[in-house]
Structure formats: C-alpha cells, structure tokens
Specification:
- With 63 residues, this protein is an alpha+beta fold.
- The chain has one domain.
- It is built from 1 helix and 4 strands.
- Strands 1-4 form a two-stranded antiparallel ribbon. The protein has a two-stranded antiparallel ribbon with strand order 2-3.
- Strand 2 and strand 3 form a beta hairpin.
- The protein is extended.
Length: 63
C-alpha cells in the first residue's frame, strides 16, 4: 500500500536525494501568493505577499 505524501514532503525527499550530488532543484509557480505571519502564536496577523508572473525553479544533476 502506497503512503500518501504532501507536496512539501515530496520536495524534501527530492532535495535530500539531490543535495549530495551537486544538483539544482527547480519549482514553477504562476501568480504566487504567500501569507506571511507577523509572529508566532494563535493571534498573529498576516500580510499577503505576491509575485505577478511566474517563478521557476528547476532540478539538474551537475554531477
């Protein structure tokens, strides 16, 4: 039975496999938005940061 993983888990696994090989990792986002917290705790506020356009990050094995 396959174990379900989240995208961050998959990305972390890929990073772990590639970092020892002088590899480069690439992700691609269109219209990226991130809610940045003002601090830690249960009553924090958030600011929305965004990128209009595309952010690309790729994988490449330099070894």
């Amino acid at each position: 039975m396959a174990t379900e993983q989240s995208w961050p888990d998959l990305a972390a696994g890929l990073y772990d496999k590639l970092t020892g090989r002088n590899a480069e990792i690439t992700y691609e986002f269109d219209e990226l938005q991130v809610d940045v917290p003002s601090g830690t705790g249960s009553d924090v506020t958030h600011a929305r940061w965004g990128v209009t356009g595309t952010v690309r990050i790729r994988t490449r094995d330099a070894g």
